[in-house]
């Protein structure tokens, strides 16, 4: 049985490495190619790359686990994310693609902010780079936790072996091929993830050991909770706000919005949006179905699921031939690796372009910057391993903290920098610092259980930007764009 699984996983690993080699030969001759793929991503690649790098192991572990435990009320997180992603494609994507090119061909989010607000350029680039590296170390760790749990649940192996294996494969193709490798592997991984999330719920409901939708629903109501399939039961107003507010995070996720900077043309953005949102709808519905109907299947068959976040892994092992099980494990690895690789690359890009190139060596050659970028990938990966070393870590908890940090620090900053002419550099710095600090303080005070920290962080950052910009001189830093 193990042999069939390993055959499928080996094919997947070889495919990822082959893409890395292709990208290494195709797109690593300059810093722009290594960091941004030459701004030449086709719409489908940009869309699925944004989606796959967004969802991570949370899609196949965190979300199904939450619904497995608490029922349909947990789906408000998915609903909020869908709305936020759509608004991100409408508000941010076309403007960011246009303006990052107009503002001196900015290659990173900190680089764009520095070019957009030259009065505080150096401070903005350094502070934003520090925020990116800090939160991405935590975010990357969440993916490695997922890899470790997969290795334990699927093979009974060591948790840290799974962490090291996950990081090792990602490191190879990311270091070799840069942004193009990450984007192409994301595309393939996104296809695998969506297919898996369609297959598993169907098999749960149609196999001889499963139930149809009606029988499964009745089983959940009678044997778990009469309100298990209610969207509103037990949901307080603050709880609802906390769940839906996950959508606010999209505007400030560097590893997602950097895809907007790399899409081939502004005219390609609507096509990419339609592809991306269709993929997201199918994937979210599939993930929620795994959690809900996985709970019904577990009850029917007397399964003791020690860790609800492993329900996808358990079902993959029980319901399928080993070759298919290996494919489904590859889907989970795809979800994890697509996000980890994106985060490592964005973090290393910030360290390279916004710290090394800006502060330490402004005359660095393209070849030198690519080398430094590769070293930075390794450094961030090592930090993430240290954070992920606790096997009791919960994927959803780690993701929620990092998601809130980015959403509050960068969300209002990105939206207003693209749309409000009066915003200035002082307001940008204030919003960045206040957003990140508010999230950190909220977590430290233990208030996250009452209200998700992104809500106060986002509001505080928005107010800080507006107030400080209005109280300080307008330096005329906004350039008119072709995008309205």
Structural class label? mainly alpha
Rg, alpha carbons: 22 Å
Bin the helical content: over 70%
Instruction: Find the count of extended strands (DSSP E, 2+ residues).
Output: 0
Report the major sheet.
none
Distance between the termini: 58 Å
Give the number of helices.
18
Name of the CATH homologous superfamily: Sodium/glucose cotransporter
Please report the first level of CATH classification, the CATH class. Mainly Alpha
Oligomerization state: single chain
Function: Catalyzes the sodium-dependent uptake of extracellular L-proline.
Family: Belongs to the sodium:solute symporter (SSF) (TC 2.A.21) family.
Subcellular location: Cell inner membrane; Cell membrane
Membrane topology: Multi-pass membrane protein
Would you spell out the secondary-structure blueprint of this structure?
Blueprint: H1 2-26, H2 31-36, H3 43-70, H4 76-91, H5 93-102, H6 109-116, H7 121-155, H8 159-206, H9 213-223, H10 237-244, H11 254-262, H12 269-300, H13 311-319, H14 322-360, H15 366-387, H16 395-419, H17 425-444, H18 454-471
Helix pairs in contact: 1-8, 1-14, 3-7, 3-8, 3-11, 3-12, 3-14, 4-10, 4-12, 5-11, 6-7, 7-8, 7-14, 7-15, 7-16, 7-17, 8-12, 8-14, 8-15, 9-12, 11-14, 13-14, 14-15, 16-17, 16-18, 17-18
């Amino acid at each position: 049985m193990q042999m069939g699984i390993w055959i499928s996983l080996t094919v997947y690993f070889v495919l990822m490495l082959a893409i890395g080699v292709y990208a290494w030969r195709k797109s690593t001759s300059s810093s722009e190619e290594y960091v941004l793929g030459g701004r030449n991503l086709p719409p489908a690649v940009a869309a699925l790359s944004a989606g796959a790098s967004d969802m991570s192991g949370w899609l196949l572990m965190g979300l199904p686990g939450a619904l497995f435990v608490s029922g349909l009320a947990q789906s408000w997180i998915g609903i909020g994310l869908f709305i936020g992603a759509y608004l991100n494609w409408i508000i941010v994507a076309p403007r960011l693609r246009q303006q990052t090119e107009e503002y001196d061909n900015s290659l990173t989010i900190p680089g764009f902010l520095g070019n957009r607000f030259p009065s505080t350029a150096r401070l903005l680039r350094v502070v934003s780079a520090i925020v990116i590296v800090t939160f991405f170390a935590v975010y990357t760790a969440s993916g490695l936790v997922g890899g470790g749990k997969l290795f334990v649940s699927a093979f009974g192996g060591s948790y840290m072996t799974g962490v090291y294996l996950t990081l090792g494969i990602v490191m190879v193709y990311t270091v070799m091929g840069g942004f193009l490798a990450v984007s192409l592997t994301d595309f393939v991984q996104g296809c695998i993830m969506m297919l898996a999330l369609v297959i598993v719920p169907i098999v749960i409901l149609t196999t001889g050991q499963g139930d149809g939708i009606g029988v499964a629903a009745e089983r959940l109501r009678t044997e778990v909770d009469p309100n298990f399939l209610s969207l509103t039961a037990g949901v307080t107003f603050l709880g609802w706000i906390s769940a839906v507010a996950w959508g606010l995070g999209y505007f400030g996720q560097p590893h997602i919005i950097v895809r907007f900077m790399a899409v081939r043309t502004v005219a390609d953005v609507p096509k990419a949006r339609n592809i991306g949102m269709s993929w997201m709808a199918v994937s979210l519905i599939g993930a929620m179905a795994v959690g809900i109907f996985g709970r019904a299947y577990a009850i029917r068959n007397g399964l003791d699921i020690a860790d609800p976040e492993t329900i996808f892994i358990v079902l993959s092992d029980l319901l399928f031939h080993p070759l298919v099980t290996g494919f489904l494990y590859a889907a989970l690895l795809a979800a994890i690796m697509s996000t980890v690789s994106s985060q490592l690359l964005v973090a290393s890009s910030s360290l390279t372009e916004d710290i090394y190139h800006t502060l330490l060596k402004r005359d660095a050659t393209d070849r030198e910057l690519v080398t430094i970028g590769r070293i930075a990938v390794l450094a961030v990966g090592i930090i993430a391993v240290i954070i992920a070393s606790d096997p009791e870590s919960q994927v959803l908890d780690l993701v929620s903290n990092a998601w809130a940090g980015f959403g509050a620090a960068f969300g209002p900053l990105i939206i207003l920098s693209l749309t409000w002419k009066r915003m200035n550099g002082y307001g940008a710095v204030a919003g960045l610092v206040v957003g990140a600090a508010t999230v950190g303080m909220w977590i430290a005070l233990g208030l996250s259980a009452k209200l998700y920290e992104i809500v106060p962080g986002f509001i505080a950052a928005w107010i800080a930007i507006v107030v400080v910009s209005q109280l300080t001189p307008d330096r005329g830093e906004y350039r008119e764009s072709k995008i309205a």
